[in-house]
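Chapter review: from sequence to fold.
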Amino acid sequence: MQKTEPGRGKNDTASDKIRELEERISSTKYNKKTQHAIGLYKAQLAKLKEKQASRGKGKKGEGYSVRKTGDGTAVLLGFPSVGKSTLLNAITNSESKVGAYAFTTLTVIPGTLEYKHAKIQVLDVPGVVHGAAAGTGRGKEVLAVIRNADLVLIIVDVFNPEHYKALLKEVYDTGVRINQKKPDVKIEKASRGGISIGSTVKLTKLDKKTIESVLREFDLNNANIVLREDIDVDQLIDIVEGNKVYIPSICVLNKIDMVNKEDLDRIKGKINPDLCISADKKINIDELKELIFRRLRLMRIYLKEYNKKADLDEPLIIKEGATLRDLCSKLHKDFVSKFKFAKVWGKSAKYPGMKITKIDHAMEDEDIIELRIK
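The C-alpha cell string follows.
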C-alpha cells in the first residue's frame, strides 16, 4: 500500500501525480515511437481525474438545478462581466440583474427566447473563473448545468479574447465535448479471449498496442472493440469512460461597439467567432436568434386536417431529421400503432399532397402533414 508523506493526504498525492502526468504529456513530442507512451499517460491521467472528481462531488447549490422546458435549452457561458445578463435580457423575456462588476449573477437565471414559434429556454449562469472545472468559485456546479443543455453559447468580450481558449479548457475538463459527435466505436465486454480489435476504416492515429493498453488501464482485459472512425487516443478514452456529453456551441464576441473596425478584425482573427454582437446596443441580436434556432436543429411542421386548410399560424416544433413516427409519438401515444398513411406537402415530398405509407419518412422544415389514423 502506498504511503503518504506526513501532513499530506491522498488528494495531495493524486494532484501531484496528475501534474506529473500532464508535464510528461506536454514535454513528450508526439510521433509513432511515442504514440503508445503518450496514450498510456493520457489514460492514467483520465483515470486519476475521474477518481478525484468522484471524491469531490457534493450537493448542488441553490439555483443550480434547473428543470428543462420548451423546445430546447441554451446556456450562456463566459467569464464574469462579459455581458451575459445584458444578452439574456436582449433575447428573452427575462429581467436579469445587470451591473458593471464581476459576479452579478449568483444563481442560474432562466429566460425564454420565442423565435419562429419555438420556445427556447436560455440560462444565464454565474461567470466562470480559471479552475472552474476543478471546483474554483463553485465552478463545478456552474459547469454541471451545461451537461444537460442542448446548446452552449460561449460569450467572449472584445477586451479579453484569450478567455475563449480558457473557457474551452474548462468545458473540456468537465467532460463536455462541444461541436463534436460521439465517435462511432462499439466496445463489448467479454468473459475471456483477451482484447479483439476490428475496424472498418484505416486507423492513422492509433495502433493496436495503444488501444490494448488504454483498455487494460481501465480494467477491460477481455473485450471486443469495433472502430468505424479514425479516432485519436483522447476520443478512445472518452468512449471507454462513457461519461462524456456532446453538445453544439456558438462562439459570440460581445461589446463590438466599444472598439474600432481595425481592432475588431484583429480580435476576430484570434478566436474566429461565429457571430459578433453588442448586447447593449442590440447589434446582430436577430442574427443570433436565427443562429440559435439553426444550431438547435429545430424545424417547423404544420398540421392539416382532412378537407381543411393547414394551420399555418401555429407550427409544431420538432428536431431536424424527425420522421412521421416521431410526429405521431409527439401527438399521441397511440398514433404510432394506428398510423395508416400521411399526405405531405413540402420539401420532403416529391409532389404536393404526396401519399406516404412509410412511417419512417423523414420530414423537412415547413412541411405540411395530414395524418390518417386507423
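Two observations follow directly from the output. Residues 185-235 form one domain. Residues 1-8, 58-63, 99-105 have pLDDT under 50 and may be disordered.
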